[in-house]
Amino acid sequence: MSSYIEQLFSVEGKVAIVTGAAAGMGEAIAIGLGKAGAKVAVADRDEEGGAATAKAINDAGGTATFYAIDLVDTDRIQEVVKEVAEEYGQIDTLVNAAGVTFPLKDTDSLEDRLANYDLTMSIDLRAAYALTISCREHMKKAGGGSVINLTSINSIVGFPGNPGYVAAKGGMRMMSKGLAMDLTGDNIRVNNIAPGYIKTAMTAGSQADPEMYNSRLRHMIVQRWGEPEDMVGATIYLASSASSYVTGQDIFVDGGWTAKGLT
Ligand SMILES: NC(=O)c1ccc[n+]([C@@H]2O[C@H](COP(=O)([O-])OP(=O)(O)OC[C@H]3O[C@@H](n4cnc5c(N)ncnc54)[C@H](O)[C@@H]3O)[C@@H](O)[C@H]2O)c1
Description:
By secondary structure, the chain is α/β, with parallel strands linked by helices. It has nine helices and seven strands; from the N terminus they run αβαβαβαβαβαβαααβ. The chain has a single domain, classed as Rossmann fold, CATH 3.40.50.720. The site of nicotinamide-adenine-dinucleotide has 29 residues, from helix 2 and helix 5. The site of nicotinamide-adenine-dinucleotide (NAD) has 29 residues, from helix 2 and helix 5.
């Protein structure tokens, strides 16, 4: 029985690039994939955190390499994909977990608003697109692949104070559906994992403020905030052949946030 499950959900030997893998959900996903036997390219601009994630995987008997990358740099994106393919001989899985959010001060300055919007779009949306296209040939050569994009509950519901972030996540949600159609001919599947409120640096402000912490908690059916490790199961499912007929979909790992009606 267990070997059947192990085979169905196996990521053993797969080569996975995980962006944002120095911290938070990207880190947990990279370590989870590494523990499950994948070879992990840990990609992040945070050199100390990224090296620590790769070390944690290697120390646990897995295989990982850190690649320093700033995702606003398209040349570096192409370079890293090439370096990973050279080092590991193939690319099977891409997890776009890096993300930024810059809550806006209330401002009518178009210049400030557009600077915020452009940077968010560049890191949260454009880089995932560039990486996917850069990985395509390598995934095709490997017989297929899986692209997993970390969106958000904000991909389907609005939040105040940061329309660029909401637009980036909504855009990513739909980009995955478009790419699922474009890439299926190469046996590449593209899906989204949409986290709810997860305990990472990104949500440090609302974790620290008891009123905000509890107001978010009230939206959840599962009565706790998410942990970064809560994303690992959905990632392994989407990276493995257990999901071979699943593409263009959203998996909401949100403690039921988007399902909750009246309390
Ligand atoms: N934390 C949440 O509650 C939450 C909820 C929904 C969606 N998300 C999304 O999930 C993903 C992971 O979020 P998290 O909370 O783990 O974030 P985090 O802030 O803990 O970690 C983000 C990582 O991305 C890296 N990164 C940021 N900009 C980069 C760049 N330009 N180049 C390379 N690396 C860069 C950071 O160095 C960091 O390691 C993000 O896309 C985020 O938008 C988060």
